[in-house]
Amino acid sequence: MINGDNNLSLFDRIYYFIQCVVNHKKGSNFYLKSLSPKLSIKNLETDKLSPSRLLCDAFWNTIDFKFLEKQLHAKLNIIDLGCGKGAYGNFIKKLADKSFDSYTGLDIYKDKKFPSYFKHIKSKAEDAYKFINKDNNFIMSQSALEHIESDFDAIKKITMVLIKKKKPFIQIHMVPASCSLWLYLWHGWRQYSKSNLSFYAEKLIYDFPINVSLVPLGSKNTFWVHFKNITLPYYTDKKIRRNGWYNQKGVNDKILRSVLLDLNCNREKMNSFWAFIISSKSIELHFKNQIEKKIIL
Predict the structure, then answer these.
(1) CATH topology of domain 32-46+63-176+185-218+273-280
(2) Would you list the DSSP string of the chain?
């Protein structure tokens, strides 16, 4: 397999696209439940964020962390795979408020801006299972699994350790959907189709007594705004590539409008991201002011 994060020759770039398109078709027809939360960007920072990142933040913003604490029978003790600067530590801490207990970032390097008041583990995600302690009950990742070569093995080992603890737990992995190939182009090892994630779910449920579900994020409006105002300018204009796509006049307003249009589409077509949710049998993720329902497409 080719990793799109590397410097690629023209042949490798073409092969990468073929590799990804073929992979999108692989997987399973296993029934994987989709959830339809009513997302909100209320009180979120919206400046200089791509549509998919803003949609992901809206998803995190809508989780009922207080109810989750009750289901976990404990406050949230988080490990963040591929944590980067650790920004999601502060973000989740703010959202979870009194339900938050601890945050540990895990990555192959430690960013200089990683907060000193959070714990950091320098490691590959494939070895994350070795660092799960008795209190950890929430494993998360934001745009990280696609950069992990053995992504399923990492998830499976983490799930195995959490099951052995015999305590309630949840994992939430935010991953790029198939359409993201055309938005991010050469990026990571893969994107994820529903059949890909259904295959993962089928194998996990076969081995472990767990719940697995999905939330699709985004639709056609956010797709085209990203493609026209981020993807094309970045690869055709050196000035924008140097100074940042967000410095284009009016682009932030266009992104915000597209997000508002797609905020609650939750359609499994042209979505840019998925929230892939794995949890103990006793846990069903709840959202603020929202009764979960199954999407029928």
Answers:
(1) Rossmann fold (3.40.50)
(2) ---TTS---HHHHHHHHHHHHHHHH-S-----EEB------TT---TT--HHHHHHHHHHHHB-HHHHHHHHTS-EEEEEET-TT-HHHHHHHHHHGGGEEEEEEEESS--TTS-TTSEEEES-GGGGGGG--TT--EEEEES-GGG-TTHHHHHHHHHHHHHHTTS--EEEEEEEBTTHHHHH-S-SS--B-HHHHHHHHHHHHHHS-EEEEEEEE--HHHHHHHIIIIIHHHHH-HHHHHH-GGGSTTHHHHHHHHHHHHTTT--SSS--EEEEEEEETT----BTTB---B---
pTM equals 0.94
Question: Residue 36's pLDDT is what?
Answer: 87
Q: Which residue numbers in the chain have pLDDT < 70?
A: 289-297
